[in-house]
Amino acid sequence: METREFNIHHPLEQLTNQAFFDAKIERNKVAGRKQFSEGDIRPFQGYPIDFLRKQMNFILELDEESRVQIIERVARPLSEIAQRYNVPSIFTGFGDLPPHITLQPANFLNMSPESQQELLTRLKSDKSHLDWISKILRCSERTYQMNTLVLGGNMYVCTRETYPSAYKARKLIERIYTRGQPVEQVIYGQEANNESSGLIPVEYKDIIHISVGRVTEKPSNGFLSNFADEAYETVEKSIAEDPVSVRVNDVFVGPSIEFFEKYATHLILK
Known about the structure:
Elements: H1 11-38, E1 47-48, H2 49-53, E2 55-62, H3 64-84, E3 89-92, E4 95-96, E5 100-102, E6 106-109, H4 113-124, H5 129-139, E7 143-146, E8 148-150, E9 154-158, H6 164-178, E10 186-187, E11 198-203, E12 209-215, H7 221-241, E13 244-255, H8 256-263, E14 268-269
Parallel strand pairs: 1-14, 3-4, 10-11
Antiparallel strand pairs: 2-5, 2-6, 2-13, 3-12, 6-11, 7-13, 8-9, 9-12
Helix pairs in contact: 1-7, 3-7
């Protein structure tokens, strides 16, 4: 099949995105350090089932070699460091979802079950433009270089590159979710405007990242800081010098509940 890409032809837009990503990575690192030093961590227990049922997702799944590399070079050493410092956590490959890249989530808001199912059926159809985007992303042989570690209640690795094709795909997915209508996006982690209705994209102008771990209980503050010190000194140094290259081989399109039912039913809170 012919390889296709989503391209952005405006260098200024790409430079703006690069500056945004660099600044966000540094903000998140500082915020995570502050959380760890103050013990201000909200333990992760799982996701409420109603939340997962009402969230639509577009997720890039990785090939087997990529998943193994993330687990062996990032998750396993983080897990070993967490055990040494008694930091209760789960990690990808060790209790959490398998390594993946969330490209663009959205929330079904103020819709009847019938309307939500009708829209979901249309979006998952092989005639949907989401299917067209999925096929392009599957066949593009795109690899992403994960070279940065960010620690906090949610730990992740990310790339400092912008990847214009991913940015363009996100913008197209947002437009398909909303049928081209202007809407006020949902801020990630915040309550939506109750007046909104329909499939509302989560504001996800985000770095390309893979969640690798989550703190599940509050440990001693000092232990958290020690964990962070060693993780940055060892794991991040390793991937900065030799990035983990990951490749997409499949795309999941559907409600998040289906993704969790496939890979991590124990993280669904009923």
